[in-house]
Write a structure and sequence with these properties.
about 425 residues, Acetylcholine Binding Protein, Chain: A, 7-stranded mixed beta sheet, 9 helices, about 45% helix, rod-shaped, binds 2-acetamido-2-deoxy-beta-D-glucopyranose
Length: about 425
């Protein structure tokens, strides 16, 4: 039994031994070992030290993840590629089973120290451990990166804004004599490459222009490649949720000018519009980007509208107050213009003048019968005359006040119209500028 078992064991070992060759004998292993045996990853891989290593860069913007206006940060996701030549990592492929390309751990070889100057936070970029090396020593490091970069974001044209953010790549230490930079693709190709850009977001990629220049500093000249990512916002959602409602609110407010200015209902109306406006602004405050540096034109317009609203409201209150003071004599004429008790009934404004039918004939009778009462009648008539006169004066003052305030009202109405017109024209201009790019 034990003999049989040992026989089987020997047979199994024999089978395993013959079917799988030792990994050390594979050409891939042989090649990797030969390449890395004498390799020093701390040394820049050139035979002639005076020769610069040129690193070719390529960038393809994949998505705009976040545009943080308040903190002036842009978060993008992109494909990034570095290609350089390593003179110590080339081989004769006919000696190694025609292997043209192998992958090597990035940690085992020399790699350029290229960073993005604007980066604030290199977040959640996967750390890919391998790079491809081909038989002539060309190393290609292709990786997705997520960059949070500092960018000066302009919001004055919100929601028709176009942002231009730059990403500057350069070696953190090496001068242009050691590490030079170059473009892997032609600059036109990079500029118009929108194939992999995610289209269904708020932002639309317009172009990625790139420039090469040499930064002169005290420590030496450093090669730099700057990519300018130009994106523009899709404004339709904001037009529907922000601009059109604000224009409607202004139109409603404009409609209140058709109520007579000395009408108390107008105050109620305007107060309601003011409350509506406030609620609207509170609701929308999250949607309008706020930056400490510059205010959006829309925000300015909202504030101007609010100021006009408050101005016309205080004007209405003043008017009612003056009219009330002039009529403090006790006649509690309601200033409501609704319900029919309005200026239409002028007989309330002018005290009832005794008419010929009611007063004329008794006086006439007494004139004949009692001459003494003539004086009395005269005094009465005079008192009526004087009271009439004071009424007339009060009314005259009222009319003056009304005239002034009517003028002011008309002025406000024109300012409203002008502001609304300016608002519309500005928005249309911004939209036209936006769509032209
Ligand atoms: C590669 O090796 C083959 C076979 O030894 C040889 O004929 C060929 O010249 C070599 N090629 C180079 C570029 O050295
Ligand atoms: C290695 O890659 C570079 C760049 O892609 C190319 O120019 C070169 O011909 C490749 N070498 C071989 C042997 O395929
Ligand atoms: C973006 O800004 C850079 C300079 O920072 C400028 O050269 C480039 O023309 C700008 N691009 C657009 C489309 O405005
Ligand atoms: C985005 O739109 C452009 C054209 O506007 C198109 O070429 C590209 O393929 C689209 N990208 C995706 C991921 O659908
Ligand atoms: C005006 O008021 C008087 C009494 O105060 C009333 O008899 C008259 O019908 C009113 N006229 C109108 C048009 O309301
Ligand atoms: C009533 O007052 C006017 C001045 O407003 C005066 O001219 C007129 O004589 C007065 N009439 C009577 C009857 O007192």
């Amino acid at each position: 039994m034990s003999l049989l078992r040992s026989c089987l064991l020997v047979a199994a070992v024999g089978i395993v031994g013959t079917t799988t060759p030792h990994p050390r004998t594979s050409s891939l292993h042989r090649l990797t070992r030969q390449l890395l045996q004498q390799y020093h990853k701390d040394v820049r891989p050139v035979y002639n030290w005076a020769e610069a290593t040129t690193v070719y860069l390529d960038l393809c913007v994949h998505a705009v993840l976040d545009v943080d206006v308040q903190n002036q940060k842009l978060k993008t996701s992109m494909w990034y590629r570095e290609v350089w030549n390593d003179e110590f990592l080339s081989w004769n492929s006919s000696l190694f089973d025609e292997i043209q390309e192998i992958s090597l751990p990035l940690s085992a070889i020399w790699a350029p120290d290229i960073i993005i100057n604007e980066f604030v936070d290199l977040e959640r970029s996967p750390d890919l451990p391998y790079v491809y090396v081909n038989s002539s020593g060309t190393i290609s490091n292709h990786k997705p990166i997520q960059v949070v970069s500092a960018c000066s974001l302009q919001t004055y044209a919100f929601p028709f804004d176009i942002q231009n953010c730059s990403l500057t790549f350069n070696s953190i230490l090496h001068t242009v004599e050691d590490i030079d930079l170059g473009f892997l693709r032609s600059r036109e190709d990079i500029e118009n490459d929108k194939r992999s850009f995610l289209n269904d977001t708020e932002w639309q990629l317009l172009s990625v222009s790139s420039t090469y220049h040499i930064l002169r500093s005290s420590t030496g000249n450093i090669a730099q490649i700057q990519f300018n990512v130009v994106i523009r916002r899709r404004p339709l959602a904001y037009v529907v949720s922000l601009l059109i409602p604000s224009i409607f609110l202004m139109l409603v407010d404009l409609g209140s000018f058709y109520l007579p200015p000395n009408c108390r209902a107008r105050i109620v109306f305007k107060t309601n519009v003011l409350v509506g406006y406030t609620v609207f602004r509170v609701n929308m405050s999250d949607e309008v980007p706020r930056s400490a540096g510059c205010t959006s034109l829309i925000g300015v317009f909202f504030t101007v509208c609010m100021a006009l609203l408050v101005l016309s409201l205080s004007k209405s209150i003043l008017l009612i107050k003056f009219l009330y003071e002039e009529r403090h004599s006790g006649r509690d004429r309601p200033f409501l213009c609704l319900g029919g008790d309005s200026d239409a009934n002028e007989s309330r404004l002018y005290p009832r003048v005794p008419s010929a039918e009611t007063t004329g004939s008794p006086v006439h009778e007494e004139h004949q019968v009692q001459p003494d009462s003539l004086k009395e009648a005269w005094l009465q008539l005079q008192s009526i005359n004087s009271s009439l006169r004071t009424r007339d004066q009060v009314h005259q003052k009222e009319v003056e006040w009304l005239a002034i305030l009517y003028h002011f009202d008309q002025l406000l109405f024109r300012i409203y119209l002008a502001v609304l017109g300016l608002y519309t024209v500005t928005l249309c201009t911004l939209w036209a500028l936006w769509s032209r790019v």
